[in-house]
Design a protein that fits this description.
Layout (H helix, E strand, L loop, with lengths): L13 H7 L4 H14 L8 H9 L7 H10 L13 H11 L3 E2 L10 E2 H14 L2 H8 L15 H21 L9 H13 L4 H24 L3 H18 L2 H17 L3 H15 L5 H17 L3 H16 L15 H14 L3 H14 L5 H17 L3 H14 L6 H14 L6 H14 L5
Antiparallel strand pairs: 1-2
Helix pairs in contact: 2-3, 6-7, 7-8, 8-10, 9-10, 10-11, 10-12, 11-12, 12-13, 12-14, 13-14, 14-15, 14-16, 15-16, 16-17, 16-18, 17-18, 18-19, 18-20, 19-20, 19-21
Length: 452
Amino acid sequence: MTPLPDPPAPRPNTAFRRLRGPLSPAEFAASVRRAAREIGEQVSCDARYIGRVESGAIRCPNYAYERVFRHMFPGRSLTDLGFASRESVRGHRARHGAGTVPAPGAGAGASVDVFEESELLRRAFMTSGAAAAAVAATPLVPPPRRSGRRVGEAEAAAVEEAVRRIRVLDDRHGADTLYSHTAKPLSAAYTLLDAGGYSRSVAARLYAGAGELAISVGWLAHDSGRLSDARSHYAEALATARVSGDPALEAHAFCNTAFLARDAGRPREAVRAAQAAQRVAERLSSPRLLSLLALREAGGWAWLGDRGGCEAALLRAQTLFGRGPSDADPEWMSFYGEAELQGLEAQCWSALGDWARAVDHARRAVALQDPHFTRNIALFTTELAGDLAQHGAPDEAAVAAARALRLMDQVTSSRIRRMLDDTARRLRPHGGEAPVADFLDRYEAAARPRRV
């Protein structure tokens, strides 16, 4: 079927771009998330969202973002911020169908306004547990329209929003309760791809969105201990990237494949995948992406016991990170800051048995972590506890492990839980010391319901 012509190019939002000032899109997105927390909102803002606002692709924000922007810039209306009024956008979309999607199970005449749908979903995510929130994410990816109308911008936006919401939930809650609820959104995204009949610009967004969704679902499988499932999802994302000729998606798929290979005990595969990712990413003008990929390579060398290869990759990662963020940094890299750099380096020194360096970098990772990333705080605190136990500091290890255990009330990650289990086993011979005894008591009490 011949693709439809692309719609007219959106008008850039120069007013919003001026408000960003000298901050990079990723840095400005972080300030938006901080402002949201100040007023009790929860938005999944990242560099790509800011880019879409500034390009004019988002003509009017949803209600949650509107409240955050009004909090950040008091006294300014939506039009002052460079947006179209909500009434004008709704009216346009109602006439042209660009902003409505069929209600689940409804006929051709029924539709749901995407602004209202976003608001309902936002409230579901804020008031529900992680598992219920994941179920609420499912309608974000609608099935192809049965009325004969073309797949368009609304469906592409729905796939992108599903990716963002899954990532936000994972940042806060971990993967275990989310993974089983993501099959439907992922299947729906690929069904949209198969439907065809969309414009070139929509096709590019659908391919990228479906691939990123496959990676997000793969990560949930990875973090919840389903490594074979994760490998399958990453392979699906890689195939999508190559079919669509998307180097950013390909680099991301290789990045996660390298991480998975390391955790699955295939460090040489981890090195090869990380190196493949770096070759692809050379075209993307993102030093921060290349820095993360160098860290993935360093991890593979460390698990191979190759200290020289690891140190060389770590030096590249640090040098590239020092060049700072750029507008070319991928949206999914919002988690990658100084804390992540320190945490991944700590893992390398741990694998090499250099416990003093591992402890030093793990401490920095915990201290520098953005409070938004609850799962990563739990991860790095658990990592610190394990490194301290290996370093011969059981009391300090027990204190850190107790902090991590408290965080596990909010985070469900089989990977982190296994790390904490290993630390508890190492600390048991030191159970006569008060901090260790206290941690072990709490650990056993927390584990008891899981054994029923």
